[in-house]
Amino acid sequence: MGVSFDKVDGAIWLDFDIHHSHHAVPEAERVAKLKDPGFGRVFTDHMATVRYSQDKGWHSARIEARSNFQLDPAAAVLHYAQEIFEGLKAYVREDGGVNLFRPDANAKRFWNSATRMAMAPLPEPVFIEAVEQLVRIDRAWIPGGEGSLYLRPFMIANETFLGVKPSSEYIFGVIASPVGSYFKGGPAPVSIYASENYTRAAVGGTGAVKCGGNYAASLRAQAEAMDHGCDQVVFLDAVERKYIEELGGMNVFFVFEDGSLSTPPLGTILPGITRDSIIALAKSAGVTVREELYSLDQWRADAASGKLKEAFACGTAAVISPIGKVRTTSGEFLINGGEAGKVAMGLRKQLVDIQYGRAPDPQNWIRKVF
Ligand SMILES: *Cc1c(COP(=O)(O)O)cnc(C)c1O
């Protein structure tokens, strides 16, 4: 594609220059902000950045004060949306240490996303080091209790050029945002709207990578769901327009009366790390998990017959959200009487207990930062 990644493959490690912020938020203000941070509005004092150019490869790795980027108005990302991101969390353990959950899986997915978007892939160890260094310097920003520090690695195309081609320059960054417990008093079941007007992804497209463009394209469908009184949109496949794919930013699972689980197969959906972890947890408990196509019509029929017991959505931000109601243009149906189900809640607890270090970690998912 005209971009050489030789230098990338060479640089598997970079040392980060650490520059402490001179305008860190005073402690009292930070404590006040951590009381009820919500999601994605409060940010820590620092950020990680690494630069890429075609001739230097990845270079200038820094931990520095969080600040604005200088972007030329012709920077490629502003025109052709060459942008990818990740999302993972740091959790405070009861012993005061700090856990990351499967950061290697995020690093790998980031590499895959970069490759699909013709961007310079970032070596996985550099991704993990950037995340860890940021967590270390901003340790005081991680809420205790059921809160966590949401980490947002991202990469933008920074070449000043309006021609359409892969950029020759990139900025990789990591920012961090303290988040409260996503749901106060346990997760409330969500209502979802099956979109007939919009699809999210097609075979050969970018559905399986975490790029901002996918989200931009989903916002209208999400607005449509809200116009119909629902919390979230669920997308159907783009070919037959009948199989369930996923929500705008979460994967889905179905729970059947025989105790088995099913979830849509990989391909056009985003390969969620929560999805993968739930499959592993269920299988290790002897539960059958099928990765198979499941149609909206079948879902409606199984909910009516009682064959389907529960459905839930999953992702890093909310972990597991039970689905209480499904709305379509031809009416709506309830799942589990609109209540949160036992299987969803049990899996949620198992996963959260591992993340916070309250349960054994047989799969080696936890990486301790402290
Ligand atoms: C990030 C994301 C998910 C969930 O992935 P996790 O790794 O579990 O957080 C699901 N669907 C989409 C479209 C996403 O962008």
UniProtKB/TrEMBL annotation:
What are the EC numbers?
2.6.1.42
Keywords associated with the record: Amino-acid biosynthesis, Aminotransferase, Branched-chain amino acid biosynthesis, Pyridoxal phosphate, Transferase
One Pfam short name? Aminotran_4
Identify the SUPFAM superfamilies for this entry: D-aminoacid aminotransferase-like PLP-dependent enzymes
Q: Does the keyword Transferase apply?
A: yes
**Which superkingdom does the taxonomy of this entry point to?**
Bacteria
The chemistry this enzyme catalyses reads: L-isoleucine + 2-oxoglutarate = (S)-3-methyl-2-oxopentanoate + L-glutamate; L-valine + 2-oxoglutarate = 3-methyl-2-oxobutanoate + L-glutamate; L-leucine + 2-oxoglutarate = 4-methyl-2-oxopentanoate + L-glutamate
Which pathway does the protein contribute to? Answer: Amino-acid biosynthesis; L-isoleucine biosynthesis; L-isoleucine from 2-oxobutanoate: step 4/4; Amino-acid biosynthesis; L-valine biosynthesis; L-valine from pyruvate: step 4/4; Amino-acid biosynthesis; L-leucine biosynthesis; L-leucine from 3-methyl-2-oxobutanoate: step 4/4
**Molecular function in Gene Ontology:** branched-chain-amino-acid transaminase activity
Cofactor needs: pyridoxal 5'-phosphate
Q: Which family does it belong to?
A: Belongs to the class-IV pyridoxal-phosphate-dependent aminotransferase family.
Spell out the NCBIfam families in the cross-references: ilvE_II, PRK13357.1
Record's function text = Acts on leucine, isoleucine and valine.
Instruction: State the name under which the record lists this protein.
Output: Branched-chain-amino-acid aminotransferase
| Species annotation | Tardiphaga alba
